[in-house]
Amino acid sequence: MTVAEPGLATRLQSTGAHALDLDGVGRHFGALVALSGITMRIGAGERRAVLGSNGAGKTTLFNTITGDFLPSEGRIRFFGEDITDLPTHERIRRGLRRTYQISQLFGSLSVLDSVYLACRGVSRRRFSLLRPRRDDVNMAQAELIVHATHLDDDRERQVATLSHGQQRQLEIALALAGAPRFILFDEPAAGLSPTERRDLVEILNALPSHIGYIIIEHDLDVALRVSDYVSMMHGGELFKEGTPDEIEQDPQVQEIYLGGGHG
């Protein structure tokens, strides 16, 4: 599956540049400090898990990265470009994508049409009124994405008739539209059955290596199987970082987040 040109990410990795570079990022809501002093550097193609209890600041971090909230302090760089003050749509044009905790889909469309419109929406021809031709590039990409997210058998189904797990797969498909360079996944395993969670892990691990991502996830079995590195948050701050094995075995992490152990 080809959803982005890998050369840029490869060059950035070789020069030590980062896909995301957060420097002292904070976000305040009046007297409430939701984020404080977040400094995080994530390499091109890296898969990072951000974990923490409810209220730790994880979703606020995502909202600040995507531009839903502008930071109260600090700077954010995306592949070396300062995007701190850019609106959300400009960040999308630069290849940043995200999914949300609650599905935001058009129930009356088919799966394939949904993915096609997502591909079309970030293309240069997005305002064209012409019907797509048989060799339409966006339709070809939509077909590839539907296959990559295990939705082949449901491609013509109306979105409203999909199961919760299938709708989560479709959200991942939409995030892959239009050559993403980096994706933020916000609790993609929430509400999934054990079988659907295994399918999710397979989909994420099979993504092209040049597409990096951050995943927020409460399911440790999912998060630790799809990430290269883990950042723990607590009270709006970074609490601890390490490899999945280091985080899983850390006694303090087990005590605070895992109830004394993790099987």
Automatic annotation (TrEMBL):
One Pfam short name: ABC_tran
Secretion signal span: none
One annotated GO biological process: D-alanine transmembrane transport
PROSITE patterns (alphabetical): ABC_TRANSPORTER_2
Chain ranges of the ABC transporter domain: 20-260
InterPro entries assigned: AAA+_ATPase, ABC_AA/LPS_Transport, ABC_transporter-like_ATP-bd, BCA_ABC_TP_C, P-loop_NTPase
Listed Gene3D superfamilies: P-loop containing nucleotide triphosphate hydrolases (3.40.50.300)
Keywords, sorted A to Z: ATP-binding, Nucleotide-binding, Transport
Protein name listed in UniProt: Branched-chain amino acid transport system ATP-binding protein
The species this protein was found in: Amorphus orientalis
